[in-house]
């Protein structure tokens, strides 16, 4: 147990925790949005993230033609390249997420099958994607080109404000603000909330359930794709099983914040990121997962629906 | 297609079974047991030699993964199928059983038969420790807690010195001989008989539970927990029982596994195994013993049989899961739509 790191590296840990936590928060939207509407764990989302990182890599290397040792870009060219790759990754993930819905969920839902059947078919999709990518990449980890030169704005009590860390904090916050507005204000967003409250009643109110569910998967895919882009830009590598740990962390974040709840995913992600950073600094990184799950159990014991979950009465359907 | 997906072999089988007299049933069961007992020799007998597996010998495949997976799937079926609790960390109990055998046999020189009750006991204890807080939660929260528990057990095994860290524990002894049956590398068929005996024991136990008070309580909890609680079922206690009995089966499988493979490492107890066992349960027909046995048998055997497409076999496995679940969402042999609770067990 090493308490001195808390005081000496406090701001650095907070900054790193925030950056990591917001990536988790974006991926956890892929779980929480789907859970809100379908009451199902979207097990394939971790593989959507994995495909997103490879989509980023593919766009940078094969479409735009940068090699891993290419010099970093500057000015307007940097901005439009990153924006292009960012949008590409989001679109790839959104398409994949919608495909997952069609393959794994739609037919089973139409037949009124039990929840575990959809869970297993989603796991099947997850295994197929994972193994497909493992065969394609021959299990090799891959490095992405450093398009964004990682210059630092300056230091604050040992916290290094690097451009990629700031990007990992600012972009998710913008996405969350936009999404929150979308879900609370727009007609489509309202229909998503209606379906998550009661599928039957939404149907009676003339909402096209299938369209709403596809839209939910699409949004989850978009945010997961954004997270994949940020992750790849910050860590500059990817491997076929990158989604596994990310998926577990993001799902934990969703549960911690209260699954099915958009703001819960945001705060849950940040809480988890901070927790991981401080736990690794104090106890060593091998005990990170143990600490996280212990905290999760304790939180759920006192707040059975997560930190920002809805009241128990509403979730019992 | 429509016929294929609606056809329920289980109901058909139950119909035929109900028409038989007691001696016919006994003869059938005995013949069935003998037939399964002869399974290890199937690969070397002409007409059934197509069963042979390319890389690992067929007899070893029958023990692990097939036998072990059937046993664990039956254990998990008590938790997921009978009382409807989603457990994503079942491998933890398997690991606890295996490490009990590994540690107690290498450090204290206990043999498998002596370790067995302790391995089961530790797994049950872990079940209580995990279950008491986790079972107060509902549905998918339980899923993530159990998933976390499975990971914690593996991480603890990697980081402790008594468990041998990431390298695991080598040199675990085989079980000593009983009744002239030797358990060692040269005799995989005796291991199969041992696993088979334990599977029969588990099946018998589950059937007893199902028609008696716990089974009825689980069924009530699975259908509607609130109503069950209102009708006076102590839901926490019965959920805990199903959890702990499931854990015990997992622990027993773990002890056997460790003494079969002789070396264990944390890599063997990854999240994938939990998922695979859950897939076995749902694939075969959740809640129905014969469905679970069939599902686990197929899912454990298939990847070994198709090892010739070595790299793509897991890919094929994933595709099979998607296609099968879409064709038969209730599994190969689904349980009866209205599970009847017999008056026989009522007190």
Automatic annotation (TrEMBL), chain A:
Recorded topology in the membrane: Multi-pass membrane protein
Primary location group: membrane
InterPro entries xrefs: ABC_BtuC-like (IPR037294), ABC_transp_permease (IPR001851), BCAA_transport_permease (IPR052157)
Sorted UniProt keywords: Amino-acid transport, Cell inner membrane, Cell membrane, Membrane, Transmembrane, Transmembrane helix, Transport
Cellular component GO terms held in the UniProt record: plasma membrane
Transmembrane segments: 20-41, 48-67, 79-104, 116-139, 159-183, 212-234, 246-266, 278-302
Intracellular or extracellular location(s): Cell membrane
One term of GO molecular function: L-leucine transmembrane transporter activity
Alphabetized Pfam families for the sequence: BPD_transp_2
GO biological process: D-alanine transmembrane transport; L-alanine transport; L-isoleucine import across plasma membrane
Family under the similarity heading: Belongs to the binding-protein-dependent transport system permease family. LivHM subfamily.
Name of the protein in its database record: Unannotated protein
UniProt source species: freshwater metagenome
Automatic annotation (TrEMBL), chain B:
Cellular-component GO terms for this entry: plasma membrane
CDD domains noted in UniProt: TM_PBP1_LivM_like
Topology of this chain in the membrane: Multi-pass membrane protein
TM segment ranges: 27-46, 61-81, 88-110, 116-135, 142-162, 190-206, 240-263, 275-301
Coiled-coil annotated residue ranges, if any: none
Subcellular location: Cell membrane
InterPro entries: ABC_transp_permease, LivM-like
A molecular function (GO) term: branched-chain amino acid transmembrane transporter activity
Main location: membrane
Keywords from the UniProt entry: Cell membrane, Membrane, Transmembrane, Transmembrane helix
Name of protein: Unannotated protein
Organism, as annotated: freshwater metagenome
